Amino acid sequence: MIPRTLFGPEHEAFRKTLRRFFAEEVMPHHERWEEQTHVDRQIWHRAGELGFLCLTIPEAYGGMGADRLYSAILMEEQTFAGASGVGFAVHSDIIANYICNFGNEAQKRHWLPKMASGEAIGAVAMTEPGTGSDLQAIKTHARKDGDDYVLNGSKIFITNGYLSDVVVVAVKTGDSGDGAKDVSLILVEAGTPGFTKARPLKKVGMKAQDTCELYFDNVRVPQSNLLGAREGMGFVMLMKELAWERLIIAILSIAGAQAALQYTLEYTRSRKVFGKPVAAYQNTRFKLAEMKAEITIGQVFVDRCLELQLHEKLAPDAAAAAKYWTSDLLCKVVDECVQLHGGYGYMLEYPIARAYIDSRASRIYGGTNEIMKELIARTL
To answer: What pTM, to 2 d.p., does this model score?
Structure first.
């Protein structure tokens, strides 16, 4: 309906390469990964070998030095393929950004090339069993002891947690009473004594994506593992990156809605009821038309947010609006599409059924949609 104008020929060539990668090297293994509740580490090595990790990280640190449109293309193609298991976006566009933007030179030199090659997998640990979206209420803490920090606490719902080699951990480093000023970010390496990982959690959907609980029992790390120039900068760093992180969810959500619509168009055109295709009935045509219109509207808004992000002008309330509206739309579209599939929409052999169980989390992670509305309301 409205052509997208953000992407040039080089972007589209990259898209074609990614499409082949997901079709030929990811999806043939995805069902097995769902059974083992995590992907094979080899797929990370392969993605790094092909240059698909840490796309926006400068070439000096092993990345591609590309704009964020390349990241958006990767997220879209991953979603179109139905590859919900690989946590590339969290690794490349969240954790790598924290290290690149706020780390010192030694931290960047040590971790970013390994993350770009797929040798090291990154995770970020913020959420705790009792805190949910309230980051200021975290209880995991780090106290100084000589030249080290000693960490104690636990984190839950950590994407890439089970396979992680480096984790950006949000901790309390002070007791000022001002929750925001007491939060710091510390890098913790897998294998450090006292740092343990639980088995991947049994989730309703996204079963191939390793999501687990992490435990810190007197974990000793050098004070040089602190991200940022000083303690207490964690909340500020998290807030600076949150607009992009929420736009990531919007990109994934609108792509997921588009994929669901495409599945349903193909199904309703081929499936016959009372002697004619399901798509021939007015109710079906109107439902499909409504979804196409709403998805197009959502795509225009997401693309505008992407354009603003490229110029570092994306406002937090706009990102919150994009995240909440598109994830709500995704769930609405997928539900309608399941209905148009009839009984087959409830069978996991059909991609719409997988989309149904995978999409629901989009309204929760990255800050619940209720939190998004609260953030928008504060600007009124």
So the answer is: 0.94
